[in-house]
Write a structure and sequence with these properties.
single chain, 9 helices, 12 strands, alpha/beta, six-stranded parallel sheet, 39% helix
């Protein structure tokens, strides 16, 4: 009885392997090349040296970042200094009738002086009042304003870290998001940013690391694209030179 059962299992395995072989052969045929029988050689791990050494000029970084960010529905503006950035945000606030603005609690954003630029609006600073429900306030905000910790030209991505004074909700919940990006923080490759996080070690990592590549974009199973479902529907990247 045992031998019969063992033979039956052996037959099942042989049938399974035969089906697997037919399946793989069919895939190879569709791809138009012989089926691979040996593991392919990997001469290096991670990014090759030529890519690690790739470095665009400052102007090339700005051009590439702008092209990539625009391609996914974002907006990019080049401004000279924080004063011009403040004037741009204030102008958009008046244009869009924004009444409630929330920003991260960072010194660079304090320099925008939006309270003076927009006396008619309520400009709130994240976590400045321990009694407030800041997630709810961010959800009701017209504008959210954050500082970019890094930006990547090749992917058109902005990296924003989370901390007590830099709540994720500021970039996630308002209707319109403004990201202030000092031009010196613009990198060529994503690896430049990720290597920095790795070097900081686990104890030195922030509460959260968020990659933003334009406005929120969602598609259901029928590929209907909807903007702004899981985040701001309008995103401005302000490159400060």
């Amino acid at each position: 009885m045992t031998e019969t059962h063992a033979e039956w299992l052996k037959q099942l395995e042989a049938q399974s392997r035969e089906k697997q072989q037919r399946f793989m052969s069919r895939i190879a045929g569709r791809l138009g090349h012989p089926q691979l029988k040996e593991r392919p050689q990997h001469p290096y791990r991670g990014a090759p040296d030529f890519w690690r050494q790739k470095e665009w000029t400052a102007e090339e970084k700005i051009e590439q970042f702008t092209s990539n960010f625009l391609s996914v529905g974002g907006h990019v503006e080049r401004v000279q200094g924080m004063e011009e950035a403040s004037a741009f945000i204030a102008g958009k606030a008046r244009e869009m009738s924004a009444k409630y603005i929330v920003r991260q609690d960072e010194a660079e954003l304090t320099a925008l002086s939006l309270e003076q630029e927009l006396p008619e609006a309520d400009v709130a600073v994240w976590n400045s009042d321990a009694e407030d429900n800041w997630k709810a306030r961010a959800a009701g905000a017209d504008f959210g304003i954050v500082m970019a910790d890094h930006a990547v030209a090749y992917t058109g991505s902005v990296v924003v870290e989370s901390a007590k004074e830099k709540g994720r909700s500021v970039s996630l919940l308002p209707t319109v998001l403004f990201i202030i990006i000092p031009a010196l923080r613009l990198k060529t490759r994503l690896g430049e940013v990720l290597t920095g996080f790795d070097e900081r070690g686990r104890a030195g990592l922030p509460a959260g690391i968020h990659f933003i590549s334009g406005p929120s974009r969602s598609s259901d199973i029928e590929n209907d694209l909807t903007i702004g479902v899981h985040g701001p529907g309008i995103v401005y990247a302000l490159l400060v030179e």
